[in-house]
Amino acid sequence: MMIDIDRLTNQIHADIEGVAETGFPLDVFPDEIQRIVYELVTYENFNLEYTASVVLSVFATALGNTHRVNIKGKWVASCGIYMMLVGRPGLGKTPPLNYLYSPVREFDQQILDKTRQEYEQYKQLQAGKKEEGSPEQMEKPRLAQTVISDFTQEAMLSVHYDNPRGVALVVDEIVALFNSVKRYNSKSNLIQDLLSAYSGNQLKAVRKTEDFPITIPIPCINIIGGIQTGLLYEVMTKEYISNGLIDRFLFVYPKNSKIPEWQLGIDKKQRPDTMARWTSIIRKVIDLPLSINEENGSINPKELEFSEEAKTYFFTWNNDIIKTVNGIEDDNEVDSRTMKLNGNAARLSLILQVMRWSVGECQLDSIDIESVKGAIRLIDYYEDSYKRIQVVADSGCIKGKPENFMTQLNDTFTSKDAETVGESMGISRRTVYNLLDKLCNSQPPFLIRLKQGLYQKIVKSCTTAQCTTAQSEVGKSIDTSDQAKVQSAEVQSASDAQKGGEDE
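RESULT FIELD:
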């Protein structure tokens, strides 16, 4: 019996690094990619969950518009994914981002050097033409860059126009994206463009230096950046939740927030050449050709369909989600994010297929069931992260408000009342419902749901500490200074509680 050394080594690493405790399904990656992740965790002290997630982003960026996934019928999606690395300062969000994106940045630099040389030739030809009337023609070179950090709408579209393969917005702190929208709010449609790009809709903008508006018929945009937990409330706002932008993001929030200690003597060990292997793999993906129509210059991405087995598995998984949503009677309790999971799952399926192809584990003519199963497991991980960061974000939304959210509600109130109070405090509708749900399920409960849309406060008589304890269940970082003001109410029996009023 032949032993797979790489797989056995990875299993040992998984036990040592406690991968099972992280919840990240690293085994959906090919063995060679797993080994690269483990080497970076061991020798560079990188966080495993951040590192593995950045790997997905780099593959998506390298692939760009060369291939797309046919999800169903005419629904075709690019591999573009939006991702936030969430964590406390010092946990190491930036290092794996810089390291793993190095091959893409190096490729950009090579293109820049080549374009500079072509531009010098172009200028010389233009000068010679003026002096001698030379008929020789040369098209003005266009600089095709992939990684950008300028979040203005014009800059992003301009770079993407010159590089139809796709672009990646890569930054240390992703809150800069949202702050840029505030600065240019009166004249920027950046957020709308990001929503449109995710959906595969054409982007268009007027560029001052051009006579005609630039158009990007098939956009492919990747976004990745870090954000501190204390700043989550700045991006988890009512505006970005209601317009669906937050629903498009995958969140990485490590369960272990301990910063790993540096290992003495690690530098004396003979290190494997991780960067050389990583660069070789990513360059193989970058070298995939982008099909371009010679007549009109339009691009023709290759569409990959699911194999029959993969399609059956994917559709069954999605239909289970649909059945769950169909069983919810109150529209207010339907989470819009749930209905967008299929889009990210399909994109991750495409990325995993390309990842496995890059190391010789599969073909690149369709998306097989192994990639689909892996993508769904990744979705489970990212959704668990999202649920946990909601607790932190909800706490931040309530923290520092002039009056406590619950203090402004009567002993018995409707969901509409809660929405109204939340809106007055700048708390999003989703955050309000998350808060109500957690306060109903906290131990001890602070609220009881009398029926759909109707709630009643349940607090021990003359005890404000109960309120503080219950609301702290929503997030450990909630400021308790205002919570002591929470209005107390008499405990009611279950029979009395059922006598509540009607829905408004």
